[in-house]
Amino acid sequence: MPELPEVETVARDLQRWVAGATIADAEVRWERTIRHPQPAERFAAELRGATISRVGRRAKSVLLHLADGRVMTVALRMTGALIVAAPGTPDDRYARVVFRLADGRELRYRDVRKFGRIGLWERGGVPRPRRRGGARRGVAEAREPYRVGDVFARHGPEPLAHSFSAARLAARLKGRSARLKTLLLDQTFIAGVGNIYADEALWRARLHPLRAADTLTQEEVRRLHRAVRAVLRQGIANRGASFADYVGADGEPGDNAERLAVYRRTGQPCLRCGRPISRIVVGQRSTHFCPHCQALPDEPGPA
DNA sequence: ACGCCTACCTGCTTGC
DNA sequence: TGCAAGCAGGTAGGCG
C-alpha cells in the first residue's frame, strides 16, 4: 500500500489535524506493533501528556515530532493507516494502537496485516558515513538505534528533495549491475519508492525493468530521474493510489489508482502505443510494463 | 553486490 | 456453495 505519496498524504493530513494536540493516553492492542526498544507498557507511559508539535515524513514513515524533541515514527508497511476519529466514532477491530487525544478525538493506528511498526526515539542521531564495499557493521553499530536519525541512517536520498539531481542519480547508478526494478525498490538506494511507483516510473521513462542499472545512457538517466519525480508528485496531487487498505487520515481512499499507466493493468492497452501490458515477476514482486515501449536495447522497440 | 528464500499477518479473489 | 491456493502496496534476515 503506502509508498511515498500515500505516506506524504497522511503526514500532511495529520499536520493539519493533530499538530498541537496532546496525547492523553495510548492503548496498545497488538504489542508487536511497538518497535524495540520500547516495551509496549513503557511506550504508552512515555507518551502520556506529550504534545504533537509537527507531523512530517521520511522515506515511507510518518514522523510525529513531539514538543519535547522526541519523535514517533510510524512505518505503515503493507496495510497500516493513521486515521483521526471524531468522538463517538465506532471502534475499529483492526485498530492496533489507539492514541486518545486530550480534545476527545482518537488517532488510530489501523493495520489489518500487522506488519507496521511504531517507534519512539530521542531527537538527533549520529550521521554515519554511508558504507560501500565489504565493510562489516561493528557490534556497537549493529545495536538497535535509540535516536531517530539512526533509524534512517541507511536510507537513500529523498527523491523529491531539491538535492536529488539527475547527476546524483547517475552517480548512484554507477557500478551497479542490479536490475532497475530491484534498485528502485531498494530503500537504501532511493527512499520512498515502492512497487506501484517503480513500475509507473519505468513506464514513463520507457525503460525495461530488467535493465542493468549501469548500462543507462546519460539521456536515459535523465528520463528516469524526471519520471520518478513526476510519478511521485502526481501521486501526491491525487492523494495517493488506493488498493484495498490505503486511506488518508480522513479515512478516504486516494484517486491515483485510476490514473496509473501500468500497475495492475496486465493485458490492457498501453496508454502510449496501445499494445497489451505485460506482467512478470522480478525479485518476487509483480512487475508491469509495456514490452514495446520499454524494450531492452537488443529487442525490437518503437522506431 | 546481488538474487533468492522465508517470515511476518489477514483478507480477498480465483479456480476447481 | 465450499474450500484451498494464490495474491497483495513492505521489509528484515539468512544463504549462496
Task: Describe what this molecule looks like in 3D.
The protein is α+β, with helices and mostly antiparallel strands. It has two domains: 4-121, N-terminal domain of MutM-like DNA repair proteins; 166-289, Helicase, Ruva Protein, domain 3 (Orthogonal Bundle), CATH 1.10.8.50. It has helices at 4-18, 40-47, 139-142, 148-151, 166-173, 180-185, 195-205, 218-237, and strands at residues 23-28, 52-58, 61-66, 71-75, 80-85, 95-101, 106-111, 117-121, 278-282, 285-289. The strands form three sheets. It has a four-stranded antiparallel sheet with strand order 1-6-7-5. The chain has a four-stranded antiparallel sheet with strand order 2-3-4-8, covered by helices on one side. It starts with a helix and ends in a 14-residue tail after the last strand. Residues 130-142 have low confidence and may be disordered.
Q: What's the CATH architecture of the largest domain?
A: Orthogonal Bundle
The average pLDDT value, as a whole number, equals 91
Report the radius of gyration as a whole number of Å: 20 Å
Coarse structural class: alpha+beta
What's the arrangement of secondary structure elements?
Blueprint: H1 4-18, E1 23-28, H2 40-47, E2 52-58, E3 61-66, E4 71-75, E5 80-85, E6 95-101, E7 106-111, E8 117-121, H3 139-142, H4 148-151, H5 166-173, H6 180-185, H7 195-205, H8 218-237, E9 278-282, E10 285-289
Antiparallel strand pairs: 1-6, 2-3, 3-4, 4-8, 5-7, 6-7, 9-10
Helix pairs in contact: 1-8, 5-8, 7-8
The protein binds a DNA duplex (16 and 16 nucleotides) through helix 7.
